[in-house]
């Protein structure tokens, strides 16, 4: 709060005329960023509209690096967040999906509905010394053969991932799965 007050050339106490505490300020900031997510353009059905809206979220939140962590740490949803989530669900309902499938679909989308995905944990960094690196690789390969197989045989292995392409791939998997279940008349069993 102090740093923000300095940036705005006001005293920290002046901020408290507008927000009760730091968490309220962050809630309001998140709500504003979410309100900036563009609406879906007219598309070819619910899946296209949902994909378009989520891509818009990726762009809007990507412009604010702090937003990802802020969204994941909120304890309550503001009006902007609720309106965005409501629009995603309305898109699915408009496409004829059942409440059951919309519920499970929202869980499957998880953080992806906000335009991001939690990455898997990074693998250990190889030692700089060639002899130590070779020993470490031998031990790692024996303990984790599937990781080594993927890392040494997959196209583009060892290169930096294209995070946009990885995001799109996973989003398509989820939306295709929801669509397939919808077409097959899926419902959960309890």
Description:
- The structure is a single chain.
- With 190 residues, the protein is mainly α.
- 63% of the residues lie in helices and 0% in strands.
- It contains ten helices and no strands.
- Helix 3 runs parallel beside helix 6 (79-94), helix 6 (79-94) crosses helix 7 (99-109) and helix 7 runs antiparallel to helix 10.
- It is flat.
- The mean pLDDT is 85.
Which residues form runs of ≥5 with pLDDT under 50?
A: none
Structural class by SSE content: mainly alpha
Distance between the termini: 48 Å
What is the H/E order? HHHHHHHHHH
Please tell me what the overall shape is: flat
Q: Give the assembly state of these chains.
A: single chain
Structural Rg: 22 Å
Let me know the number of strands: 0
Secondary structure: helix percent:
55-70%
**Residue fraction in strands:** under 5%
Layout of strands and helices, then pairs:
Elements: H1 2-8, H2 12-15, H3 22-35, H4 46-62, H5 67-73, H6 79-94, H7 99-109, H8 130-143, H9 145-153, H10 163-183
Search tags:
single chain, 190 residues, 10 helices, 0% strand
Short summary of the structure?
By secondary structure, this protein is mainly α. It contains ten helices and no strands.
């Amino acid at each position: 709060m102090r740093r923000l007050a300095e940036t705005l050339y006001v005293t920290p106490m002046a901020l408290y005329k507008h927000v009760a505490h730091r968490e309220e300020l962050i809630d309001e900031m998140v709500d504003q960023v979410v309100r900036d997510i563009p609406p879906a353009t007219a598309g070819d059905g619910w899946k296209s509209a949902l994909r378009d809206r989520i891509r818009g979220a990726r762009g809007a939140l990507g412009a604010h690096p702090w937003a990802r962590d802020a969204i994941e740490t909120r304890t309550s949803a503001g009006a902007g967040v609720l309106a965005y989530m409501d629009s995603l669900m309305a898109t699915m309902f408009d496409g004829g999906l059942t409440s059951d499938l919309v519920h499970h679909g929202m869980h499957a989308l998880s953080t992806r509905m906000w335009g991001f995905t939690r990455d898997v944990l990074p693998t250990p960094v190889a030692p700089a010394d060639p002899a130590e690196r070779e020993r470490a690789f031998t031990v790692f390969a024996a303990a984790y053969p599937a990781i080594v197989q993927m890392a040494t045989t997959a196209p583009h292995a060892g290169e930096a991932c294209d995070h946009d392409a990885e995001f799109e791939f996973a989003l398509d998997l989820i939306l295709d799965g929801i669509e397939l279940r919808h077409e097959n008349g899926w419902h959960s069993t309890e």
